[in-house]
Amino acid sequence: MSMMHKLHKFVIFLGMGVTLFSLLLFAVLPSIIQNAGSDWEQIVNSGDQSDEKLLAIFESHPAYIAMYETYPDAKQELNSRGRGNGILQVGIMNFETNNQLVLEMYHDIGRIE
């Protein structure tokens, strides 16, 4: 094979590779940009919310309200995970039967439901 023939094959394969890469990039790039934008939005909006704001979010939930309406002497524990995320556990226990009722509530800014 001559050098020109090898060069011609190389140029054809290079062109095919560049074309396929361009098509792949064209198909995937909008998704990458959109995901990156939403990630930055979550970072900017999350901030460091205080435990009081997090507790206020939990206290406004209907399950929390129903728990304290039914069991006014229930105890609660807030586990803040930072950046506005956390877990609230509200529980009551019958010490005679050792039965427990625990309500666990999660708040995660990055999670969309």
Summarize the structure.
The protein has 113 residues and is α+β, with helices and mostly antiparallel strands. The protein has helices at 3-46, 51-59, 62-70, and strands spanning 75-82, 85-94, 99-107.
Task: Explain the overall architecture.
There is one protein chain. With 113 residues, this protein is an alpha+beta fold. The chain is built from three helices and three strands. The protein has a three-stranded antiparallel beta sheet with strand order 1-2-3, with helices on one face. A hairpin with a 2-residue loop joins β1 and β2. The radius of gyration is 28 Å and the shape is rod-shaped. It starts with a helix and ends in a 6-residue tail after the last strand.
Q: What's the number of extended β-strand segments?
A: 3
Rg, alpha carbons:
28 Å
Helical residue percent band: 40-55%
Helix count, per DSSP?
3
pLDDT average, as an integer?
83
| Low-confidence parts | none
Strand content: 15-25%
Strand order of the largest sheet: 1-2-3
- CA-based shape: rod-shaped
Biggest pleated sheet: 3 strands, antiparallel
N-to-C CA distance: 62 Å
Spell the H/E element sequence.
Answer: HHHEEE
- Based on helices, strands and strand pairing, what is the structural class? alpha+beta
Topology:
Elements (H helix, E strand, L loop, with lengths): L2 H44 L4 H9 L2 H9 L4 E8 L2 E10 L4 E9 L6
Antiparallel strand pairs: 1-2, 2-3
List keywords for this structure.
three-stranded antiparallel beta sheet; alpha+beta; rod-shaped; 3 strands; 3 helices
